[in-house]
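PROTEIN DESIGN WORKSHEET
SECTION A - STRUCTURE
LENGTH: 56
C-ALPHA CELLS:
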C-alpha cells in the first residue's frame, strides 16, 4: 500500500469530519439555500490555496 495513501486518507477524512461538524450549526442559522451553503462551505478552504498558487 502506498505510504501517501496511509497518510493522506486519514488526514483528509479527519479534516472533512471536523469541517462538517463545524458547519452543521452554521448551516442551520444561515439564510442561504442549502445548495449554496454547501457550495460555499466546500470552496472556502480552497480559496487561500488558490490565491497562493495564483500569486506565485
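SECTION B - SEQUENCE
RESIDUE ASSIGNMENT:
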Amino acid at each position: 500500500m502506498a505510504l501517501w495513501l496511509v497518510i493522506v486518507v486519514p488526514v483528509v477524512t479527519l479534516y472533512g469530519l471536523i469541517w462538517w461538524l463545524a458547519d452543521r450549526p452554521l448551516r442551520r442559522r444561515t439564510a442561504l439555500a442549502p445548495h449554496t451553503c454547501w457550495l460555499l462551505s466546500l470552496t472556502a478552504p480552497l480559496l487561500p490555496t488558490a490565491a497562493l498558487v495564483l500569486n506565485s
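SECTION C - NOTES
Residues 3-29 form the longest helix (27 residues).
The mean pLDDT is 86.
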